Amino acid sequence: MKDILGKALLDYFQGNHTEDIITETNISEEDEMPLSYLFRDFKEMPALEQQALRLSKGSTLDVGCGAGNHSLYLQNQGLDVLAIDISEGAIEVAKQRGVERTKHIELLNLNDETFDTILLIMNGTGIFSQLSNVSKYLQHLRTLLNDGGQILIDTSDIKYMFDEGEDGGIWVPSDRYYGELTFTMSYKKEKGEPFDWLYLDANLFETAATSNGFDFEIIAHGEHFDYLARLTIAANSPLQ
Length: 240
Prior knowledge:
Elements: H1 4-13, E1 21-25, E2 28-33, H2 47-55, E3 60-63, H3 69-76, E4 81-85, H4 88-97, E5 102-104, E6 115-120, H5 134-143, E7 145-156, E8 180-187, E9 190-191, E10 195-198, H6 202-211, E11 214-221, E12 226-233
Parallel strand pairs: 3-4, 3-6, 4-5, 6-7
Antiparallel strand pairs: 1-2, 1-8, 7-12, 8-9, 8-10, 11-12
Helix pairs in contact: 1-4
């Protein structure tokens, strides 16, 4: 697959920034993603991200690390962090910025370490791709979690993007869950392959989490239908 994100991050980091990434979904028009935002420091991060980083403890896995913003902050706080991403360019940028432990790998292929904190930020449920994959990812995340560990993950309820009926209900697709989107990313006249990206409303996420042996807690709500959740292994889970 074309590494659109990695190419853009490398260009920005190496001083070759002339334009930003363009994103588009199956339910929205083209929008610019400023590359500068993908290199933000702690004080520029949204409150939910800041809170997730403050709650991180012990050995930490940063899933979908991008340019390494979260990993760098946690390293500076003295935490042992492994940063992973499916974008080879992103991993190269993270390395060059000083992230000490990186791995170019898909989450489901990571099997040789366990962690006290697993961090999935900037709509962390997006990597689940589709609703049908949620249990598979949650079960794999469990195998990477130390006893007493936590998963910190944020997402949004995107029902606000759909039209509301006279009865107060919303018009959502009949053939799929409304939080299942298809994204396309373009950069410098190059268009990447479409990819699936999942947003989960809190009720559905809690149901999925509890059915997979987790306790589910909403830590905080953001300003735009987003929220930060913490998943921990339930005391009565058969996985304990």
